[in-house]
Amino acid sequence: MLTGRESLVRLIGKRRRYLPNRQAIVSNPISQSVLSDERSGGEGDGSSCSNAVEVSVSDWVTCPVCRSNVRGDDRIINSHLDDCLTRGTKRKLSQRTLLDWNFSRGSNKSEQTEVNVVETSPDNDVCGIVNNPSDPVVENDDSLECETSNNRDHILHTPVVASVEKPLLNGKLNHIDSRRPASVQNSRPHNAETVDDIYGYNLITHIVARKFCDKVEINPGDTISLMRDPSNTKDPNAIKVLTADHGITKTVGFLPRDLAQYLSPLMDKFGLHFEGSITSVPDRPLAAIPVQIVCCKKIYIGENECEDNQIFNSLWKHVIDVVKLEKSFPGNTKYQHNFILMLQEVLRTNPHLLTADEKTFLESFISLSDDGQRLFVRLYTRKGPWFRLANISYSEILDCQLAATELFAAGYVCLIESKNDIQKDDLEEVLNVLAVGELREIRSTMNKNSIRGGSRKQDLIALLTSTYKDKLCAIFEKTGVCIRISPKADSLIWRVERLFFLDGELDLSTFLLVDMGIVKYPSYNCIISDQIFSCRDDLLSYEEAIEVAQIMDQALEENNRELILRCINLSDSRVTPSTVRTHESSPVPFFSRFTSSWVYSKVVLLGVSFLEHENRYIDAIRLLKRLLLNFTSDRRRGYWTLRLSMDLEHLGRHNESLTIAENGLLDPWVRAGTRISLQRRVLRLGKPPRRWKTPTFSESVQRKITEVHVQGRPLNCVTGTKSRFYGEDGEQCGVEQLALQYYAGEGGGWQGIHAESGIWLTIFGLLMWDIMFTDVPNVFRNLYQTAPLDMETDSFYEARKSLVESLLQKVQNGMAEEILITSWELHFGTSCRGVKWDNHSLSDLRAIVTCIGGPCLASICRHLAQDYRSWSSGMPDLLLWRFHGDNSGEAKLVEVKGPRDRLSEQQRAWLLFLMDAGFNAEICKVSPLR
């Protein structure tokens, strides 16, 4: 894979079905190519890149048809309009309409709103926006009563949002349970609100997770009881449902997680006891069982009666709300509630990024029927794009055809209801819904003399596509009515997902993973003082850059060389010093990853790898020089400088290559392995007569690293494959396992693991947990982050310097094991950047931190805190430890290399740092027996 491709794929995330700007991106001419003509064989120095035409933001205008950004040149505008109108639009365009279009440069001030502040506090433990002082204050409104909770786990798994109409009360966001639908959020329970009201109050719920429990024969009316299960590894709030089977108590299942999280503290703290009965038995063996439970035991109120009553009332209200929600949204329709919640949150927090038409369109979704909402979400989460309506059937949707008609009328889906609705552009995708046998039947109706091609599905589709006009009737007879998500709805919902999650790899399935308990996110407060996208133009530019990245990725898959070069060319032309300087001077520098220039730079970097792969070093040099010229404060400058120096050397321009390497060492953004690599290049290229003076870093970078040699019986000796050997036990193993066997035996009786960077990132995450998730403005934007946004920037250490140094002092004083144990017990199973719970046991981690010692461990943690991105990879393969008789220990770090392996510069950088920090570090070279 080309360098930078994997990173670009993660940035793109889930690919979009429709790219609204694709036609403009692919067809728009570029005023001056930054790539040299392939037919030119000259060896230019690359300086001509500075003469390339630079287009500033003010030279772009917004097309009123497709809302994409277009160059402000009359010829380009006219060409773009022709393309837009050719594609067709539902809007009837008159000459007056065309004349009234406003191709204004700059942002639309009427669409910008004042940046609001979202705050969180212990009493208001959710993300909210502080009221504008001019907004009216709502008082004494029961429907907006603020509720206090000190247990953030109550709302951890789903973001909490208020209603769009009345989200605030006295400058604070309402503490409203995230599971409540819009119809429930503004109402309070009218029964059983206090301690004295709960007796005899029936709660209707379900028994779930039956596959993890005993097989019990159940019947309607069977008696059940509840029992806490605090040792449950999946959920410490778990509540088991028990029944008596022939006098033996057995576990039928569990209460839903949403209900258990509120009911469990009531049972633990107040001694509530619940009994009930099974109301009906489902047909499917493992389906949820409807039950009715009732409180049948008095509660205990402590000495602080007022405080206990307040806690009880708050928890009980949440219980009532969850039960009501479960009634409104049964277990198999949670996705509907999650989707609505996501829409409401984006409408509330980002109104300045949406036009009035877009807001109206999104808000109209909430007014659709339950069937319409559920069908849309179901279709949106499937691959598609086209589906046979006759084949769509979901148990929670009563009438799919009626729902489809409603969605079509609202503009959320497109329908093919007759042969005349089949467009040539959609034909291939429509034919794809048919089975091979059905395609053959359609082909058999054709003139036998015209039948050609193979019998594979794609061959049949290609044949029918070429003669589609003659077979529309036969095609429609086979497919019937077809349905797909409309381009408008798809584009807007994609935008909503991106604004909500801020991560292309997260989507609606994230809600499902949390609901099922598969993923648990950390507890933190969202303190928002700055908007990521200050205006709509910034968002549209960012979205178009993501489109270019997706087109680039698809072009690489299809090996479409022309399109690859166009994407490279277009991306480079849109990375200009003015836009980059604007982003780098932002008050929140780590927001730069959400800018178009940052995305384009990743496309350009991938383009550099592509050009180098084709030996087009002149073009690669030109692009690298432009990246270095435009991005003056970027961590990738080290890699760019290294590649530039290497490409210059490929062309035989050694003097220039040396100069670039020397200048790179003066750059503060050149760090870690790339710095070591540049230093070694300077030493290699800078020999007399080019340079007579030896650099000051010569002795440091050329230090000898201890080497140990191990011999083994090889299994394979094929270049390009991973070396395999026979271990001491006769089993096949890799070089790392062979080295572990050596160190466990004659190498010194060491215990050890092959973990590379994983073990260190896990230790760092556990020790730094509270600091990573402490209250820092703007680093947490939703409840689905595993790390703060500034984790891989210099801002991480700078914003938490006092906290980090205080913790590292404790680590240095020998308290690492205590901190590690506490963090493990409090957060086990919670997702966190770098922490791998299943890869390492607590006993191993305790032994490791004890044997490493406080000073060495503190130095590594400080290194990672100051520059996580540069140092989170390349650590030695093996971590070894052993104890002495006096309960003290020692550790060793070993980089293992096979017969055909060599040390990377990042690995060398780590080994040199570890040696400076006082570690016992060495290289183990495995070679075949002679």
Write the layout of secondary structure elements.
Elements: H1 5-12, H2 22-27, E1 60-62, E2 69-71, H3 74-87, H4 95-100, E3 118-121, E4 124-129, E5 168-169, E6 172-173, H5 182-185, E7 202-207, E8 223-228, E9 239-245, E10 248-254, H6 257-270, E11 274-278, E12 289-295, H7 305-328, H8 334-349, H9 356-366, H10 370-380, E13 387-388, H11 400-410, E14 413-416, H12 424-431, H13 436-444, H14 457-466, H15 472-479, E15 482-485, H16 487-501, H17 509-515, H18 536-558, H19 561-573, H20 577-584, H21 596-613, H22 617-630, H23 637-650, H24 654-664, H25 672-685, H26 698-701, E16 707-714, E17 724-726, E18 732-734, H27 735-744, E19 751-754, H28 758-767, H29 769-772, H30 795-799, H31 801-827, H32 842-852, H33 854-866, H34 868-871, E20 878-883, E21 889-897, H35 905-916, E22 920-928
Parallel strand pairs: 16-22, 21-22
Antiparallel strand pairs: 1-2, 3-4, 5-6, 7-12, 8-9, 8-11, 9-10, 11-12, 13-15, 14-15, 16-17, 17-18, 19-20, 20-21
